[in-house]
From TrEMBL:
<keyword id="KW-0274">FAD</keyword>
<comment type="similarity">
    <text>Belongs to the oxygen-dependent FAD-linked oxidoreductase family.</text>
</comment>
<keyword id="KW-0285">Flavoprotein</keyword>
<feature type="signal peptide">
    <location>
        <begin position="1"/>
        <end position="24"/>
    </location>
</feature>
<keyword id="KW-0732">Signal</keyword>
<dbReference type="Pfam" id="PF08031">
    <property type="entry name" value="BBE"/>
</dbReference>
<dbReference type="GO" id="GO:0016491">
    <property type="term" value="F:oxidoreductase activity"/>
</dbReference>
<dbReference type="InterPro" id="IPR036318">
    <property type="entry name" value="FAD-bd_PCMH-like_sf"/>
</dbReference>
<dbReference type="InterPro" id="IPR012951">
    <property type="entry name" value="BBE"/>
</dbReference>
<keyword id="KW-0325">Glycoprotein</keyword>
<dbReference type="InterPro" id="IPR016169">
    <property type="entry name" value="FAD-bd_PCMH_sub2"/>
</dbReference>
<protein>
    <submittedName>
        <fullName>CO dehydrogenase flavoprotein-like</fullName>
    </submittedName>
</protein>
<feature type="domain" description="FAD-binding PCMH-type">
    <location>
        <begin position="78"/>
        <end position="252"/>
    </location>
</feature>
<dbReference type="InterPro" id="IPR016166">
    <property type="entry name" value="FAD-bd_PCMH"/>
</dbReference>
<dbReference type="Pfam" id="PF01565">
    <property type="entry name" value="FAD_binding_4"/>
</dbReference>
<dbReference type="GO" id="GO:1901696">
    <property type="term" value="P:cannabinoid biosynthetic process"/>
</dbReference>
<dbReference type="InterPro" id="IPR016167">
    <property type="entry name" value="FAD-bd_PCMH_sub1"/>
</dbReference>
Length: 574
């Protein structure tokens, strides 16, 4: 063993004692002061910058934080809170926030609408700052060129409304929930009830603006082909801050048709045969027809005190009622669709109908960002590539009734989805997938026991479904965020940890995303619990060194750690 002089050890102790004594523990207030000074200097603006930075001591802090929390599980007194919330209104505010958060070494979480199912845009177990993009909501629609420029903090409802203002025969294929934010929805794929006709939202992105880790504003031309590919389905928050997307509009007919048809297992309706037939029809029928299937355990109307399964088809057809009734009569007779089940309306009214507004609601309701009360919820996802058998379905019904509350949403693929290659964007779930499953459970009361019960239900049903869904990998949808499938501590094994969830979300596209991430953000500043990791060979750095033996080379490496509110916020290296 190498002989070590005691001098380095004595010197190390001397330095440790002296620096520890001389470093005053920074407070949340000092973080605010440092960040605000940096941001003011960067933006060259003495006015109004303080109006967009909120510390916990600010009387508006809680209301700003809670305004875009869409899962009540992450709105409790024990939920970790950010040190600061920044609400930029101009591009230099975003650039400066990236530069300043990086300079003071604090994680930046980016929130556009707050609908992340696991709350990772506004929660962290490390000290963090929220960059809340809700003021970036401008939408410019150019009907002549059939494009729209949409800022990241706009909501889908606002997008649909602004398109409708300019044209009654254009729309955009994205989600059915109007309060979802554009930045997260589009950058992770974005799907809705026109995906069989028009594909995903990302299939219609023609340009983008992003702030990178160096604080530069890049567009498609300046960011390059790889980064532009990555942010169209790979999750923008792994690579930078999305400012806006330029999207291509799609044509919609003047008249569309919607319908909702429920079936119940205990009312002499052959629900199992109904679902068997749905699997054969929904992924293969006319591209213009999207038939979502809801499966829910509900109280029986026949046997008091027992539960049964209700199956409900909710559909959008980009055409008239007569045509879809005739089509379903031929292809899906167990649906029993009649014209009385159908309602013809404009496309914008179908958006309102799918958002569960009543029939008297006007389109301007889509501009309302307020959510009366967020539910407690858990979501998971799967992909089905082979039809589930009758025996399989009957076993699933029993399991759902046994568990009690967790339901399914089956979203059919096929159509345009089968025509786009799996590597055209990072979103890989294209041809070969019949439908996507969302596992869904909501509850209204707080409490850790309730949360554990309902989340356990969802996990147990997910486990039960293993024989019926995709495997090697068992694929998942990024925007149905699910931390159960893996998280990243970003230590020496970050690539391996990232691959656990990354391959499920991105399949064969994962390694390309890692290469792009490593190139554009090598220090992994933009990170969250399930972000794309870098792969810079951290495991080999210093691998030949034997710890303390290197003190003889005077390579003193130590740190003073200071905590604020339970968070490590300063690491001082010498």
């Amino acid at each position: 063993m190498e002989n070590l002089s005691p001098l380095p050890s004595v010197l190390f102790l001397f330095l440790l004692l002296n620096v520890t004594a001389s470093v005053a523990a920074p407070t949340a207030e000092s973080v605010y002061t440092s960040f605000l000074r940096c941001l003011t200097n960067y933006t060259k603006s003495q006015d109004h910058v303080s109006d967009i930075v909120f510390a916990e001591t600010n009387s508006s802090f809680s209301s700003v934080l809670q305004a875009y929390i869409r899962n009540a599980r992450f709105n409790t007194t024990s939920t970790p809170k950010p040190l600061l919330i920044v609400t930029p209104s101009e591009e230099p505010h975003v650039q400066g926030s990236v530069i300043c958060a990086k300079n003071i070494g604090i994680q930046l979480k980016i929130r556009s609408g707050g609908h992340d199912f696991e709350g990772i845009s506004y929660v962290s177990d490390q000290p963090f700052i929220i960059l809340d993009m809700f003021q970036f909501r401008n939408i410019t629609v150019d009907v002549q060129n059939e494009v729209a420029v949409v800022q990241a903090g706009a909501t889908l409802g606002e997008v649909y409304y602004r398109i409708w203002e300019k044209s009654k025969v254009h729309g955009f294929p994205a989600g059915v929930c109007p309060t979802v934010g554009v930045g997260g929805h589009l950058s992770a794929g974005g799907y809705g009830n026109m995906l069989r006709k028009h594909g995903l939202s990302v299939d219609h992105i023609v340009d983008a603006k992003i702030v990178d880790v160096k604080g530069r504003i890049l567009d498609k031309a300046t960011m390059g082909e790889d980064l532009f590919w990555a942010i169209r389905g790979g999750g923008g928050a792994s690579f930078g801050v999305i400012l806006s997307f330029t999207v291509k509009l799609v044509p919609v007919p003047e008249v569309v048709t919607v319908y909702r048809v429920p079936k119940s297992l205990d009312e002499n309706e052959n629900t199992t045969e109904f679902v068997l037939q749905w699997q054969q029809v929904a992924p293969h029928t006319d591209y213009r027809l999207f038939m979502r299937l809801l499966l829910q355990p509900v109280s029986s109307k026949v046997v008091k005190g027992q539960k049964t399964i209700r199956a409900t088809v909710i559909a959008l057809f980009l055409g008239g009622a007569d045509e879809v009734v005739t089509l379903m009569g031929k292809e899906f007779p167990t649906l029993g669709l009649s014209k009385e089940n159908c309602t013809e309306m404009s496309w914008i009214d179908s958006v309102i109908w799918w958002a569960n507004f009543d029939n008297t609601t006007k389109p301007d309701a889509l501009l309302d960002r307020n959510v009366n009360s967020a539910s407690f919820l858990k979501r998971k996802s799967d992909y089905v590539q082979k039809p589930i058998s009758k025996e399989g379905l009957e076993g699933i019904w029993k399991k759902m009734v046994e568990l009690g509350k967790t339901g399914f949403v089956f979203n059919p693929y096929g159509g345009k989805m089968s025509e786009v290659s799996s590597d055209a964007t990072p979103f890989p779930h294209r041809a070969g997938n019949l439908f996507k499953i969302q596992y869904s459970v909501n509850w209204d009361e707080p409490g850790i026991e309730l949360e554990n019960n309902f989340t356990r239900q969802a996990r147990m049903l997910h486990t039960y479904m293993t024989p019926f869904v995709s495997s090697n990998p068992r694929s998942a949808f990024l925007n149905y965020r699910d931390l159960d499938i893996g998280t990243n501590s970003f230590g020496n094994n970050s690539y391996e940890e990232g691959a656990v969830y990354g391959v499920q979300y991105f399949n064969d596209n994962f390694d390309r995303l890692v290469k792009i991430k490593t190139a554009v953000d090598p220090e992994n500043f933009f990170r969250n619990e399930q972000s794309v990791p870098t792969n810079t060979g951290l495991n080999t750095t210093g691998a030949s060194k034997s710890g303390a033996s290197k003190l003889s080379h005077f390579s003193l490496h130590w740190k003073v750690m200071v905590k604020v509110g339970g968070f490590l916020i300063l690491e001082l290296f010498i």
